[in-house]
Amino acid sequence: MVKLHRSVYWALFLLLFGLEFAVGYYVSHVVGYVHSDAMSRVANAFYVLFSRNPHLGAIGFVWTPLPSLVDLVFLLPYHWFPALASSGLAGVIMSSLFAGMTAAMLARAVVSFGMPGWFAILFSLLFSCNPFMFLFGANGMSDAPFIFFIMYSVVHLSHWIRTRNVRSLIKVSFALALAFWTRYEAVPLGAAMGLAVIIIIFLIPRQDADTEQLPRHTFKYKYFHVEGTWVLMLSPIVFSGLLWIWFNYLIMGNPLFFLNGDYSNVAQAQQLASEEKFAEMIGHPIPASLFVLKKTAYYSIPLLSIILLRIWNRRWVLWDFLVLMLLFISIITLQWLMLLKGTSYGWFRYFMYVLPITVAWLPYELASLKKTFVNYSIVISGMAATCVLLTSALMNPQIAPDENKFIQAEHYAVSQTVEKEIAQYLDTDLAGYNILMDSYSAYSVILNSQHPEKYLITSDFKFHESLEDPVGSGVDFILSPKPDKSSADSIDNQKYQLYEKGAPWCELYKEFGGKWRLYKVIRTTDGGSRMNSMEPEISVIIPVFNEEVHIVQSLSRVEKEISRITSSYEIIIIDDGSKDSTWDKLTQFGELSQHFYALRLSRNFGKELAMCAGLEHARGKAVIIMDSDMQHPPELLQQMVHLWREEGKDVVECVKRSRGNETLDKAIGSSMFYTILNKLSGYELRGASDYKLLDQKVVRAWREMPERNTFFRGMVAWLGFDKVQIDFEVPERVDGNSQWSFTNLLKLAVNAVVAFSSIPLRFVSIFGVIFFLGAIILGIQTLFQKFLGNAVTGFTTVILLLLIIGSVIMISLGIIGEYIASIYNEVKGRPRYLVSDKIHSLSSETEQALEVSRM
Fold first, then answer.
1. What is the rounded distance in angstroms from the CA atom of residue 391 to the CA atom of residue 716?
2. How far apart are CA 531 and CA 853, in angstroms?
3. What is the pLDDT of residue 345?
4. Given Cys at both, which of 3, 437, 564, 722 links 442, Cβ 3.0 to 4.6 Å?
5. Closest CA to 133 of 314, 342, 356
């Protein structure tokens, strides 16, 4: 018996796996095109691990789950390599794996039927490297595992025909069950194999000459033989089907959810009746038959090869050929019935499974013939002709429109960028909000998001409850897709039809590419007021420390100016642990203003952290930060808001033309600080101030920065966004003295440098190199003097070197210490600030709602 070394099978597996994955990686990750079916199966696995409610039931109950279960394993490193989800690479690994297994299994099957090794390898490669079949190993869809299982079952069925070995029958049974867990086409294939058992037992004798032939038996014996074979072969697939129905009933509440649910193939195909091409086949057998025959013809050359082999070799026994035809017809019969009912899109690939069935049968066919050059040539020629024919079909979008997208991946990748842009927008601009979406359509958005747990999706436990009452369930936004012919008739589309009609309880917030609409839920607090009335247009943040002398005057001036611009605003005061009567003054002011909110920190945390407190509590669509001493002129507020409103600027910065009446030491220190910071960090902040307007999305992005050693001006510069600057002259303080001492300014400067540059750490290495070079030069000079006999005791030189080196070491240790202290403060994880008291100027009911909105 011919044998191939195990390494040959491993080589075939690794070759096909590597090629498939390389192509799949390039198309999915580099080009950026992922087929929707592949992405949806990765998404089903993703929901099990990383959704808001991770659970195994999230894998879905429409499409059989084996591909997603395999994807689930490859998604485990998602946090280290997000492209496993966002580019569907988990699916690519899965399909590449099964394509490699198919190549090895097919070569082994050929050898097991007595064919030479060279033919086994060539036969396997002609099938696996057929461009059309190769496509399905690289695209991450469910076809690659299904092809493996059905070919495995056909190979071992043909073994059982020859030997009646029960082990082959068991392999067929489990392969059929796994095929069912991959695609529903396994059901008609299993039924066809059940009918084939009758033909085999009654009409085909065992062909293995090495085993003893059993005597002929009566009809009753053969009947029981059929019955026992059915039990053994069909039990796993029948059990799988019943288990699948039970899961649908137990979890979805509908045992036939996969057939008639909102996301089933029937629901998706409801609009086919309106398309002329499909309408003429619904209920009309002849047009449907012609359509099926035309599609199937492209995959039928291997079947013609088998017919030609039989004619050439005068092999007229047709019973085993009838078995093959039963398997062949079972696949196309299912599609024919679905076209008659209007529940199939008739994609070109739906008919391709007849090809792997026929190819898996070919080793059995050749085993019954003489091993001649002509017989091998017929098979090889048929396989090669199939490559040419299917490649031409793949390149023709009229024949294979869905499959051709893989060839035109760069074109179709553009259309998939919209979902990526939506994910980025929801991550940055709507961070912290609850977003409801139908995961049937929005899976690509979820997979491309960095925070998938923020979405309330179809598989979540409270999805239906939230869909019935979005307002009461805490939903802030709903993402709705534009319906098309492939849209499921989901509850979202059926009940609300949000995309087209909207609803009285929500308002259109943003539209994406003409394909998606984001609706904002209008939440009521007392039956009439809306949620958006609780979100002011402008928030003004003012940190204060010991400002009792002028605080009321300053706040009155700010409120007067901001009230001219908008009626929707809030003024947020952060009392940074004042020791005087500043808090009492704020309490008095709160009784006069209807737009006032104040926090009292438990101690003096510093201006930077006081601004953190304000930014974390601000709710406005735009947030303005300014000082209370009026050196940030309130008259600039109108211009700042105008640039934000009318020109769409995300950041409006007020930059000092001059620093006003500043003492010489502070002017020199400030100039040195900004020069050093620019050289070390690359950010030019000369003239920068804390007087800024930030769009809400910038504030949300800032909130994603968790460090405790903050430098507000540098952090805003680091964030980027669309900026504009306004120059201003710094006026005199309204009253009182600056609270910034030299020590505080020095501490701020050190924190800023440490937070935005690691270059000082490199000074240690630089000084080390300089002194090493100096040591070499001094050593050469010393040796030279020694050889000349001029060496004298260099007491002064030694002392000077020790002083210099000691100073450098101490400075270096100090620099390192600053960074270590910064790291120490960060890893302690203490809160940035603590609030000891609050002031609200609103009514108690509104105040309570306000506190909820700030949580």
1. 54
2. 9
3. 76
4. 437
5. 356
CA 360 to CA 161: how far, in whole Å?
Answer: 14
Q: Is 250 helix (H, G, I), strand (E, B) or coil?
A: helix
d(CA 475, CA 454): 11
Question: Distance between CA atoms of 353 and 182, rounded to whole angstroms?
Answer: 13
Strands 622-625 and 596-601: unpaired
| Residue in the structure block whose two tokens are 């006081």 | 610
The two tokens of residue 32 are 């950026």
Nearest-angstrom CA–CA distance, 199 and 188: 17
Residue 203 parent element (H or E): helix 186-203
Strand-strand pairing, 622-625 and 506-512: unpaired
The helix/strand/coil state of 1 is: coil
**H/E element holding 610?**
helix 607-617
Question: Which one-letter amino acid corresponds to residue 296?
Answer: T
**Quick one: CA dihedral 493, 494, 495, 496, positive or negative?**
positive
Q: What are phi and psi of 252, to 5 degrees?
A: -95, -10
d(CA 194, CA 156): 14
Pairing of strands 596-601, 569-575: parallel
Nearest to 624, CA basis, from 605, 609, 639:
639
Core vs surface per residue 312-324: b (16+ CB within 10 A) or e: ebeeeeeebbebb
Using alpha carbons, select from 512, 514, 510, 575 the residue that is nearest to residue 545. 575
Residue 785 confidence (pLDDT): 59
Using CA atoms, how far residue 74 sits from 90, 139, 679, in Å, is: 5, 15, 45
Burial class (CB in 10 A: 0-12, 13-18, 19+), 824: exposed
Q: Average pLDDT for consecutive 10-residue bins of the chain (855 residues)? A: 84 96 95 91 91 84 85 93 94 96 96 92 96 95 95 95 91 94 91 93 72 59 87 90 82 71 59 66 86 93 95 86 94 87 83 96 92 92 95 93 90 86 87 81 89 85 77 79 57 57 77 85 48 67 84 83 82 85 82 79 81 82 84 84 84 74 51 49 56 84 71 72 80 55 48 49 56 58 58 53 61 63 58 77 45 47
610 burial (CB, 10 Å; 0-12 / 13-18 / 19+) is buried
How high is the mean pLDDT of the chain? 79
Phi first, then psi: give them for residue 539, nearest 5 degrees. -115, 130
**Residue at 31: amino acid letter:** V
For 420-476, where are the E strands, in sequence order? 435-437, 455-456
CB-CB contact of 331 with 280 (8 Å): no
3-state secondary structure of 656: strand
Q: Which of 61, 50, 49, 52 is nearest to 460 (CA)?
A: 52
